[in-house]
Specification:
The chain is α+β, with helices and mostly antiparallel strands and 110 residues long. Helices cover 47% and strands 15% of the residues. The protein contains 4 helices and 3 strands; from the N terminus they run ααβααββ. The chain has a 3-stranded mixed sheet. The longest helix is centred in the middle third of the chain and has 18 residues, at 62-79. The radius of gyration is 16 Å and the shape is elongated. The model has no long low-confidence stretch (mean pLDDT 86).
């Protein structure tokens, strides 16, 4: 039996929901890693918008969104146990995700 199914591309709003709000959203998966190390984490708006834009342009939907974070988070996750800051803000810098302590940038992990 041959079956053809046509799917619509995800809209930017759909990608944002996948990243931030649906059950088992992508951000929550990273949140648990930070919580394990007693860190509070948030995503800077610029990072959210860039992740959604790159994923939307690729046309691969949630897979592209996940790849965006996997390919850019390795350094932060590797250094997570040694982070001194409790409140971590993830930002995008030079196409790489960095961890900062908010707007002060005193403690930045790149």
């Amino acid at each position: 039996i041959n079956t053809v199914v046509l799917l619509e591309s995800l809209k930017k709003e759909d990608l944002k929901a996948i990243l931030l709000t649906v059950d088992h959203c992508l951000f929550r998966q990273y949140l648990y890693m930070f919580m394990y190390h007693h860190k509070d984490v948030s995503l800077h708006d610029d990072l959210i918008e860039e992740a959604i834009e790159v994923s939307h342009k690729s046309g691969y939907g949630a897979r592209a969104l996940k790849e965006f974070f996997i390919s850019r988070m390795n350094d932060v996750l590797f250094k997570l146990p040694e982070l001194k800051m409790k409140n971590v803000v993830l930002k995008l810098k030079d196409d790489k995700i960095i961890a900062t302590d908010g707007d002060r940038h005193e403690n930045t992990i790149e």
